Amino acid sequence: MKSHDLHVPLSLESIRDVRAGDAVYLSGPLFTARPRWYRRVLQENRPIPVDLAALGANVLLHSGPLVRSTADGWEVVAIVPMPDWIADGGEKNVSQIIERLGLRAVIGKGLLEGLPAVCAKNQCLHLITLGTWNNFARQIEKVLHAAWLDLGVAEAMWVFSVRRMGPFIVETDATGRSLYENSRAEREQKLAETLKRLQIDDFSYSSPDAPPR
Predict the structure, then answer these.
(1) Does residue 187 have a pLDDT over 50?
(2) How many domains does the chain fold into?
(3) Residue 77: what pLDDT?
(4) DSSP state of 42
(5) How crowded is the C-beta side of 57, counted as CA atoms within 13 Å?
(6) What CATH number is associated with residue 122?
C-alpha cells in the first residue's frame, strides 16, 4: 500500500498514480452532501449556493457532520460518513454530480453499483473512510461556508478547509479498478473451486425458507 498526500483542487496529474488499495490524505477545500442536497440540485434544479469552482473544491464528502454554533462561527464536533448508495437514491445521483461538477474524488462508505465505470470515464477516485469521527473533525481547519441551513445542520451543505484529512482508502481508482469488485470476483472464484472440489452443483446464496410455526 502506498500513501499519498494530495492537495485540493485535485488535478488529473495528481491522481494519475493513485491506485485502488492505496491510502490518501487530503488538504484543502471539500464540501458535504446528503440526499436532500441532491434533491435540490438534481430534482428541483436549484443552483448550488456556493461557487465550488472558484474555491477549487472538487472533492465531495458524503456526510452529515455534527456542527455547533460558536461565538466565532461554527465548530465541527464530529464527521459521520454516509454510505454512497443512500446519496445515490437509485437515481444515479452520484454519477450525475461527478460529471456535472467535474469532481476528482468522492468520499463515502460501501459499494455503489456502477461507480467503477463512472470513475474510469471521469477519472475520479472513490475513497472510503478509515479513521474515527472525532479524528476527522480535528482535521478541519475552518468552516468556509454553511449553506441551505433550512434543511437542518446535518443535511445542510458545508464547505470545509481541511489539513491532511484521512487516511482514506482508495476503493476505486481513476482507471476503474475497484477493491470491492476485485474481492468479490476473487471470492466467487474461490467459492466455485470449493464447490467443484466438494462436488456440490446445487448451491444457492439464498437462505432456506423458515419452517412453519
Answers:
(1) no
(2) 1
(3) 92
(4) I
(5) 22
(6) 3.20.130.10
- Residues shown for the chain: 213
Q: What is the CA radius of gyration of the chain?
A: 19
What's the grid cell of residue 64? 452529515
Residue written as grid cell 473544491: 57
Phi and psi torsions of 114, nearest 5°: 85, -10
Cell digits of residue 150: 433550512
Q: Angle CA(77)–CA(162)–CA(154) in degrees, nearest 5? A: 40
Domain that holds residue 82: 3-197
End-to-end CA distance of the chain: 52
Report the C-alpha gap between 101 and 207 in whole angstroms.
42
Whose CA is closest to 149, among 4, 27, 5, 36?
A: 36
Residue 119 lies in a domain: yes
Look at residue 86 in the predicted model and tell me its pLDDT: 93
40-49, Cβ contacts within 8 angstroms, sequence gap of 24 or more: 40/148, 41/97, 42/91, 42/93, 42/96, 42/97, 48/157, 49/147, 49/148, 49/157
Peptide bond into 9 cis (omega under 30): yes
In a domain, 135, yes or no: yes
- In this predicted structure, the answer to whether residue 197 has a pLDDT above a threshold of 80 is no
Partnered with residue 137 across adjacent β-strands are: none
CA 185 vs CA 21, 140, 179: distances in Å:
16, 37, 10
Q: Report if pTM > 0.90.
A: no
Look at residue 2 and tell me whether its pLDDT is greater than 60. yes
Contact 130, 139 (CB under 8 A): no
Percent of residues in the chain assigned helix, strand, coil, to nearest 5: 30, 30, 35
| pLDDT at 196 > cutoff 80 | no
